[in-house]
Write a structure and sequence with these properties.
Strand content: under 5%
Number of strands: 0
Distance between the termini: 11 Å
Largest sheet: none
Helix content: over 70%
Length: 307
Amino acid sequence: MNPIINSLGAIFLVLATGWALKARGFVSPSHWAGVERLTYQVLFPAVVIHTLAVADLSQLPVLAMGLTLVTAILGVSGILLILRPLLSRVGINGPAFTSVLQGSVRWNTFVALALAAGLHGREGATLMAIAVASMIPLLNVLCVLVLARFAVGRPMSAAETARSIAVNPFIWSSAVGLLLNQMQWMLPLALTTYVDILGRAALGVGLLVVGAGLDIHRLKQPRLAHGLAIGLKLVVMPLVAWMLARQFGVTGTALTITVVAAAVPTATAAYFLARDMGGDAPLMAEITTMQTLLALATLPVAVLLLG
């Protein structure tokens, strides 16, 4: 239990530091936007590329973890799509539904990777990179399609959808990392060290950005949409992932990392996608803030009981 508490305690302190810096105006809003762009486009891709490039994937349950997480995402998404007619009758309209779905299946990779590295070091980071490569392409395609179908904003064309998927940093960095993994023997040490140095900055800076994005004023009285997204993401998703992982033979450290990947709060990038595609962006911001704070309590329970 102590490693879990210590890792989450450190993550909470960095998140709180980011929130305090934003609240006190120590860093201007325009600068935060630049830091977020740097982290999203450069630093975090460096983590994924370096981790996948130097990993011995033959010794890891790549296929089993990938199947587990992909099936969990499709399962929870399917539940929501089946419930869509009922949800519309209880006040959750199309745009709100897209935010509930994003809040139920997307995940905060900054928090996940920080916790995985804190719990299991390099092995944890490598396993979490496998989760990134498995989940991010599916999630981006799924969320874009759901927003195009149910949001009231301008639907994206097929070409725009394909482009948004291709330029997503988590997708192309996963592809580059897996490609470089096939030629480890010929990679210059200077190159791998360069990418490693960039990646080391990602976790701290990424968590500061997540903390700065928390808006405590949005913690108003929860509604059904909030509770549904919180329950599905923080309770149902890790439980489903755990059951599937056991069926696919995932054990040990890989099981713990699978549970962590499923149990972390939703991605802050979900807000920007909702805003750009006509979803309920304010609801998305509220769900993100609530989940991030509540996950500090639910994550230790999920890892202790399931991982």
